[in-house]
Design brief:
The chain is of the alpha/beta class. It has one domain: Rossmann fold (3-Layer(aba) Sandwich). The protein is about 25% helix and about 30% strand. The chain has helices at about 25-35, 65-80, 80-90, 100-105, 205, 210-220, 230-240, and strands spanning about 10-15, 40-45, 60, 90-95, 105-110, 115, 125-140, 145-160, 170, 185, 190, 195. Helix 1 (about 25-35) packs across helix 6 (about 210-220). The longest helix has 12 residues, at about 25-35. The radius of gyration is 17 Å and the shape is globular. The relative contact order is 0.16. The chain binds glutamine.
């Protein structure tokens, strides 16, 4: 693992700005699923008061929030270039909603202003005609992960560059609001070290297979499955729920 000892270090980026949807719960899920496998894990909250944000985390998490919080978060992250560099190269990064948009080249708001993103991924975001709000189900592009469930609440419509693949094909809901190369509506993005999605939930609480995929990437270990009957029941409820 990236740290000097064998502890998995999970950095929650700017929970003070991008905490609206409780996406920091993704850190709790990763840490607990690691510990259940005997892997020590530590969660670091990296707030806007940090003057030397750590660049050695094994996983970085960036959540969703309002447009103003999103632009402030982007400016803050851009001030420490070694951090975005680590997010895209040495760590595994999960970016949700505003976090996903921040990973891209640019995003525009409803008043027509365009702001630069971190440029870690070839994607752009513009405001859609209607806000996308509700439950989402997608089929995940990562082999073995299966269906993803979550909820969305965003105005942004994200277009992926030609070299990028969505994290999932949308079965229900909106997601990116654009089509993938095969003409299916897509959600999020799966790139080398960065996974992005519009799904809140927190997404890893609802989708343990995605959590384990991230843990396997971060630790380089194959993890034994965990049997959690309550979680299976909850997933079934979300995946079979018919209407919004
Ligand atoms: N402000 C962004 C949008 O509305 C992100 C919202 C969110 O993070 N839920 O598109």
């Amino acid at each position: 693992m990236g740290s000097s000892d064998s502890t998995l270090v999970i950095g929650v980026l700017l929970p003070d700005a991008l905490g609206t949807y409780s996406d920091s719960g993704n850190a709790v899920v990763l840490a607990q699923r690691a510990r259940w496998r005997g892997i020590p894990a530590r969660v670091l909250d990296i707030t806007a008061t940090a003057t030397a944000p750590p660049t050695g985390c094994d996983v970085y998490l960036l959540g969703g929030g309002e447009d103003s919080a999103q632009t402030a978060a982007t400016r803050w992250l851009a001030r420490y270039p070694a951090l975005p560099e680590a997010m895209a190269t040495t760590a595994v990064t999960l970016a949700v909603c505003a976090g996903l948009q921040i990973m891209g080249r640019s995003m525009s708001d409803r008043s027509g202003h365009t702001y630069p993103g971190l440029g870690l991924l070839d994607l752009t975001t513009v405001p859609g005609r209607r806000r996308a709000v509700g439950e989402v189900v997608t089929t995940c592009a990562i082999p073995g992960v299966g269906q993803l469930t979550g909820f969305e609440n965003h105005q942004g419509v994200s277009t992926l560059g030609d070299g990028l693949q969505p994290l999932g094909q949308v079965v229900r809901g909106v997601g990116n609001g654009t089509l993938d190369r095969s003409g299916h509506p897509g959600d999020g993005v799966v790139a080398d070290r960065i996974i992005g999605t519009y799904l809140h939930g927190p997404v890893l609480a609802r989708n343990p297979a995605l959590a384990d995929h991230i843990l396997q990437m971060a630790t380089g270990r194959t993890l034994e499955p965990l049997e959690l009957p309550d979680q299976h029941a909850l997933r079934r409820t979300y995946l079979t729920r018919s209407a919004r």
